Amino acid sequence: MLHLRRTRVASISLSSHLKARTAASGPRPCLRFAASNERRKYSTSSDSYLTRSMVIQLLSNIGSKREVKQYLSYFSSVSSQQFAVIKVGGAIITEHLESLTSALVFLNHVGLFPVVVHGAGPQLNKLLEDAGIKPHFEEGIRVTDSKTLAVARRLFLEENLKLVEKLEEMGVHARPITSGVFGADYLDKEKYKLVGKITNVNKIPIEAAINSGSLPILTSMAETDDGQILNVNADVAAGELARVLQPLKIVYLSENGGLFNADTKEKISTINLDEEYDHIMSQWWCRFGTRLKIKETKQLLDLLPRSSSVAIIHPDDLQKELFTDTGAGTLIRRGNKIATASSISEFEDIERLKNALTKNNQGLEAKETMDKYVQDLESREFKAYFDEPMDALAIVLPATSTESPANLTMFKVTKSGWLSNTADNVFSAVKKDHPKLVWTVPQDDENLTWFFDKADGSIAKKDNILFWYGIEKANEVIERVIQFPTQNGSTLGILDFGTGLHHKVTSRLSTGVFEPQQSRNFSTIPRQLIRRKSQKIKNPISKGYATTTNPNPPFGKKNSSNFQPAKVALIGARGYTGQALVSLLNTHPYMDLCHVSSRELVGQKLKGYEKREITYENLTVEDVCRMERNAEIDCWVMALPNGVCKPFIDAINQGKNSRGSLIIDLSADYRFNNDWTYGLPELVVRSDISKAVRISNPGCYATAAQLGIAPLAPFIGGQPTIFGVSGYSGAGTKPSPKNDVKNLTDNIIPYSLTDHIHEREISTQLGVSVAFIPHVADWFQGIHHTISIPLSKTMSSRDIRQLYQERYAGERLVRIIGESPSVKAISGKHWIEIGGFGVHSSGKRVIVCATIDNLLKGAATQCLQNMNLALGFAEYQGIPLE
After folding, report:
1. Which residues does the UniProt record annotate as the domain N-acetyltransferase (predicted)?
2. Considering the chain, what is the average pLDDT of its residues?
3. Architecture of the domain made up of 338-478
């Protein structure tokens, strides 16, 4: 199972403390290490000792003292270069240099020496573009010619020195290492040119830097045997470095702060590869960059000791990830598979079980108590959960009914079990089987914070704390646990039984005096109840639009799981919408437009796209089928008139490859097909769009009308009427009276007075019958809707405006204004504006006005928004928001 970690409650900034300390005391004395690769021994002056103590004290603000000391001891138990390899992306250096250097200073002040390797991809892209060199990628690998390499070498040196100088400025010695570490051969000289495949790693420069008291800062450049410099991906370089150094931690610093489950949009806390890899890789959301990262991580960790793990985190959270049990980003480790047993006979070695139960409790009395415990288990129904070396062992007595909780009667974890997070893995297995659980822990347990993190609520009584999850009412917890049935005259109700504690807890539970007190130190309110108080009420009408704060908030950067360019084919590129989409794709960092098809423009050069030179083609259905079969395209965009694209859709379906591609249709052909997902992200569940492979893009009129009506759906008292006026670009490029400028001058033309296809679309999607009358006017682009909505209850203009503001809270492409919006103001903008909110004197009818650019949010921008969601990019990537 995936473990979704709590959001970081608070961050701690250490740079000001450390800078002040450095300024007051002069340069920080270096920690000196022997040249041996064995466990390091170091001495410090009194000043560096005080600095180290101060930092350890600060660490205690983000974790318990037990956690800090435990992890610090763990990280100090290996040679210096075996602590951690930290890969730093170029964007981190540009955007988060202060956070990065503060974190590295922090680690150095407690005597740790991470090996840092960095890239500079985003900076390189910009420099190349400024120099007139177009970045070229093949299969996600940068094709590096001599000009590109020359720019890259200069840039890597500058970025390396920027990081080194910042560390030195903060009182930490750092050594730039820009060559001499990575040996390489050409990856594929003909295909990728000057790109290297690392063949060997030289540790000597790294060890020399650490032995001199300096942090080693490496670039990801490699060299051939004859001295040719080759470009290497920084992730690859970090992995190869880890294979040689075999560190406890391999850390990838990321702006996203971890990997995300694209279904729930929650950060994935932990992945135990031995237990979960096959399951995760089978999930629909595990794709693109997320899938590649998990696969590459498994390949790396399979070659490293089980003690090694990979962390993907934001630089702000580095300390919390390294020094607390709960962490902050995504932790990936091999772990151990969790076994279960439901009877004593299922344990292969009873003595091994007894040894696990008596860890930390020695002596004859402990052995006798343990023997009695095992004897009691022989006559009880229970389920045990444990890893192969029994570093973590849980024993659960099952619930006596569907309403009652199970009882976690034993939870024994070794030091290794805590440090390797095996405890989390075992507890997750327990939670999977038991939706309701209670357990008791001594108040002086050094792992108390871990148990609080696992619980929904708790009650303290004298020497112990009662924890639970899955139970909604505190009094129900008390009642259930006090009356928890005993068998054979004894109760198994503790997690760590020294004999005296065993007796006290047993007698207390059996006499039923575990009631809460006013003086208790811990909350008894389940976190689940707190969450429920803020849950949104859905509208009972059709689509379930909410009437309170946005129930379908934007995914934003949380959707970003794919960092490989997506190959796009645009069929029907001649029209205005196709041209607008080309312009958006041109500035999108991950969209790679490869083919444009237009029968009328075949052979001409595509204008407005600068990433590569593209010539219009006239793709046939046979071409499309072949391209799909060969997996040449990731996303097909159909920008064709209504009733035209079906042969192309059929061809794609016929040529379907194992990977499958995304199709987005801009016509109305599939808007009423239940096999397709309707792509209006603000009103349709975003996770449905992110899973989809067939998306029908909504119509321009329909988008504005639905967004203009949806918040009031529960209060509609009759049929809404929509008076819509569009610029003549909405009539397409084919000449007609509706796009004849002379005919439209000083004129407005109504058309399709009844049964317009958008009337059906709006009514179907909203679940409310509407009347829609479209018109075309003499401006080029932009739509204005005046919508009259009968109300089922009396409402004020202020109430209605607040309703819209709350419903669209956080939406970057919906803007609520007070006055009526204008077409002139919306033309060329990528969002919709909604305003007016004029209420009739009766209070039972409101006029809502909405404006939208029919070519952008009404078509191309919405298409790109859907592409981003379905292809795993940030939702608003490539969309101008100002």
Report:
1. 339-492
2. 80
3. 3-Layer(aba) Sandwich (3.40)
Contact 745, 778 (CB under 8 A): yes
Cα torsion 776, 777, 781, 782: sign: negative
Q: Tell me which amino acid residue 464 is.
A: N
Contacts 24+ apart (CB under 8 A), 439-443: 439/407, 439/408, 439/409, 439/411, 439/466, 439/467, 439/468, 439/495, 440/464, 440/465, 440/466, 440/467, 440/493, 440/494, 440/495, 440/505, 440/509, 441/465, 441/467, 441/495, 441/496, 442/496, 442/501
First to last CA, the chain: 41
Which of 3.30.457.10, 3.40.718.10, 3.40.50.720, 2.40.50.140 would CATH assign to domain 558-696? 3.40.50.720
pLDDT at site 882? 83
Name the catalytic one among 286, 625, 635, 700: 700
Tokens 């329909």 identify what position? Answer: 702
Scanning the structure block, which residue is given the tokens 């645009």? Answer: 570
Does 140 score more than 80 pLDDT? no
Higher pLDDT, 232 or 514: 232
Length of the chain: 882
| Interval 690-701: pLDDT, tens | 989 999 999 999
Q: What is the Cα Rg of the chain in Å?
A: 32
d(CA 786, CA 398): 61
* CA 121 – CA 92 distance, rounded (Å): 11
Planar angle of CA 56, 58, 59, nearest 5 degrees = 60
CATH superfamily of the domain spanning 700-856:
Dihydrodipicolinate Reductase; domain 2 (3.30.360.10)
What is the per-residue pLDDT for 187?
Answer: 94
Residue 449 has pLDDT above 50, yes or no: yes
625 carries an active-site annotation: no
- Most confident segment among 34-43, 229-238, 348-357, 509-518: 229-238
pLDDT of amino acid 377: 83
Q: What pLDDT shows up at residue 658?
A: 66
pTM of the model as a whole: 0.58
Report how far residue 540's alpha carbon sits from residue 596's, in angstroms, rounded to the nearest whole number.
43
pLDDT, residue 132, reads 80
- At 47, list the tokens: 């000043």
Would you give the DSSP letter of residue 683? Answer: T
The pLDDT assigned to 492 comes to 37
Same fold, 558-696 and 700-856: no
pLDDT of residue 738: 75
> Structural domain boundaries of the chain?
338-478, 558-696, 700-856
